[in-house]
Amino acid sequence: MVDATPEDSAAFLRQSRTALTGIFILCIVAAIYLARDFLMPVVFAFFIALTFRPTVRKLARYNVPSWAAASGFLAVLVLLSVTVAYLASGPIAGWIADAPQIQRTFMQKIGSGLVNFTQNIQDATTPAKDAKVQEVVLRQSALPELLALAANYPAYFFINLAGTLVIAIFLMASGDLFYEKLVRVLPTLTDKKNALRIVHDVEREVSVYLLTVTAINAGVGVAVGISFQFLGMPTAYLWALLAFVLNFIPYIGPIIGLALSGLVSIVVFDSLGYALLAPLAYLVWIGIESQIVGPQVLSRRLQVNSVAILIALAFWVWAWGIPGVAVAVPVLVTIRVFCSHLESLKGVGEFLGESSSLNAGQAEPAAGGIQSQSTS
């Protein structure tokens, strides 16, 4: 029997490490899918706590107890959620009740447009006396069923929301308990310092990202609401809320908002040309946000490439359904920021980031401008 050479042993160790890594990743994926009912409120609570934790820590320096600051933040969130739900419940219930009529009106207008288009073609190619109007048969779509499904969803949503808020308040009120535990289990002083630095940096940067994206989306919602109010769209404030919420979903959310605004405007307005103004205004504001505001405000470390975002959306929708859409990008940003702080994982962070050739001339000057303003 021939003894294994050092090269063979090293190759075997590399293969074993790769295999174990693959098995570990598969176990994580299985756990995410199978334990989604447990993990959903925990993950949402983690991001809520991560968003407000730096502010809670700053308030603690002014002798404000962590539990008081956490309770205050969550009370404001609950109050805003209840107010928004109250204001939006009536129009949404009206939309659901009028869904069949909206669908019929939309189909009739589209059908009339097709009939007129066909008539014009026939008039151009055949004598007027021989022209016949082509009958357009429209099938019943699944719009009412989809809206009915959406109407039954909030009960499950509010149950998870209650669990999320309870876990979030305990996470924020616990202070630096988890960080203290982390410091205790690490062996050397250097490891303790590095761990605290990485955790605080990730916490601060992800918090800045979530708050910045929320502020940008709120600006988009306000702009859309004002534009729709000017154009005469019904319940413009509801469109502002819809634009704010949908803009948290990259790529898919703006498309949904654009399609809905086009559908409703076609139903509401008689002129097709005027009906196109509402989706056009929606498209303009989304374009300004995605092409100008977002790249200039967010630092390059917080930006993620579009392919990774689409893959993350597909994975989290498969694993958690609709709630997965909300956590896909924050989880991806958290992983990217965390990897950028570890030398061994910088390759993963670079893979998740945007192309340097596309953003070197945009994001870095923006970051430098912000830094120069803060130092001055």
Short structural description:
The protein is mainly alpha-helical.
Descriptors for this entry?
376 residues, mainly alpha, 17 helices, 81% helix
Structural write-up:
With 376 residues, this protein is mostly helical. The chain is built from 17 helices and no strands. The protein has helices at 6-34, 36-60, 66-97, 99-125, 143-152, 154-173, 177-185, 189-231, 236-246, 252-268, 272-275, 277-297, 306-320, 322-340, 346-352, 356-359, 363-375. Helix 8 (189-231) runs antiparallel to helix 9, helix 13 crosses helix 14 and helix 14 packs across helix 15. The longest helix is centred in the middle third of the chain and has 43 residues, at 189-231. The relative contact order is 0.08. Residues 127-147 and 357-376 have low confidence and may be disordered.
Chart the SSEs and their pairings:
Layout: H1 6-34, H2 36-60, H3 66-97, H4 99-125, H5 143-152, H6 154-173, H7 177-185, H8 189-231, H9 236-246, H10 252-268, H11 272-275, H12 277-297, H13 306-320, H14 322-340, H15 346-352, H16 356-359, H17 363-375
C-alpha geometry: globular
Low-confidence stretches: 127-147, 357-376
**Pairing-aware structural class of the strands and helices?**
mainly alpha
Q: Could you tell me the number of beta strands?
A: 0
* Total count of helical runs of at least 4 residues: 17
Mean pLDDT: 74
Alpha carbon gyration radius? 26 Å
Give the helix proportion (percent range): over 70%
Instruction: Kindly estimate the percentage of residues that lie in beta strands according to DSSP.
Output: under 5%
Reported for the largest beta sheet, the result is: none
Distance between the termini: 73 Å
Give the SSE order as H and E letters.
HHHHHHHHHHHHHHHHH
